[in-house]
Amino acid sequence: MEPKRYDGIFLASFGGPEGQEDVIPFLRNVTRGRGIPDERLEEVATHYRANGGISPINAQNRALKAALEAELERRGIDLPVLWGNRNWDPYVPETLQRAYDIGHRRLLAVSTSAYASYSSCRQYREDFGMALEQTGLTGKLEVDKVRQYFDHPGFVAPFVERLTEGLAGVRGKLQATGTEGAVDAPEQDPDARDVHVLFCTHSIPTADAEASGPRNREFVESSAYVAQHLAVATSIMDTIAEADTEWSLVYQSRSGSPQTPWLEPDVNDKLAELAADGVKGVVLVPLGFVSDHMEVVWDLDTEAMETATELSLAAVRVPTPGIHDKFVAGLVDLVCERTVENNIADRPALTGLGPWYDVCTPGCCANRRGAKPTIAGSDEADLSVGAAE
């Protein structure tokens, strides 16, 4: 899209409970329309209840909002940052209404999801489209969205830095335990083949994976979602020059009916396979996530780490980008790609799949449950929300 004059930034995220009483209402929001009974939700609620009923994601979004505001101020960019969630307070519709009431007319959205899929891209576009209709702001308030940033340098650089540290950490653990002759020759690093890197991301139904990305492009495994993760993982491994260290893309956080095919292998199954193959140490890289929220601290820090311990695997989990200065600066760069003031004409991408699109084509990351009003899409006049004049 051509650069525009925006008057605010909308930080859009998933949301999470802030106390024990919030957990079931939050999970009802997440699963709305799927008919899942509270008894089943309570099984998932144990993850949150073990953390006091509080999801880390809200505090992380407050920190990210503050970091974005500081970076904008440092650059002299006068754009306020608003924050709204899909599933918990502050909700998207209420935040849009407040934005309009205080005078905003054109917002640029940044979501806390980097990849192409229904839940990580199109659903956010639907969240805004439906919220504009719900509040009666269609045609009065315009909302655009920055491109998906899976291969933007600002998103990738923190993983490069932290994987390098993680590899050193797991090899240090192996040396300390005498693995691969380290007791006899402590100055010798463990063999690179003893360490395996697991790039971890959220599993999604294979039907959603195959629907991700535009229909006029071909992708590895017929999925933009899978192809993007593989491309970024390859870029990271090439950057750290670990030619002898093997790696895999694995999945976590599966939910839903066991009869529905989801992306595999699961991280815990892969850990068992690696241990059986003689691997001694693993580095878990939460490549699919922006911050250390519940699906990182539970599924990786709790379940995967417990699996690694049971299998006698030395394991290190590296941090997500969070509020790393390069990530925050990269998000502001993405905003500046779209603004008239402080414009950045360059659109960097570290893989051959990008840079991704400012405007999505019809059918891109389509929802198998039916189409809804949607922003930031082309040729979707019957579904899209029109821009304000």
Plain-language structure description:
The chain is α/β, with parallel strands linked by helices. It folds into two domains: 8-149 and 324-338, Rossmann fold; 153-317, Rossmann fold, CATH 3.40.50. The chain has helices at residues 23-30, 38-49, 56-75, 92-101, 118-135, 153-176, 206-211, 224-239, 267-276, 294-297, 299-310, 325-338, and strands at 8-13, 81-85, 106-111, 142-145, 195-202, 246-252, 281-285, 314-317. Helix 3 (56-75) crosses helix 12 and helix 4 (92-101) packs across helix 5.
Summary keywords:
Rossmann fold, alpha/beta
Topology:
Elements: E1 8-13, H1 23-30, H2 38-49, H3 56-75, E2 81-85, H4 92-101, E3 106-111, H5 118-135, E4 142-145, H6 153-176, E5 195-202, H7 206-211, H8 224-239, E6 246-252, H9 267-276, E7 281-285, H10 294-297, H11 299-310, E8 314-317, H12 325-338
Parallel strand pairs: 1-2, 1-3, 3-4, 5-6, 5-7, 7-8
Helix pairs in contact: 1-2, 3-12, 4-5, 6-8, 6-12, 9-11
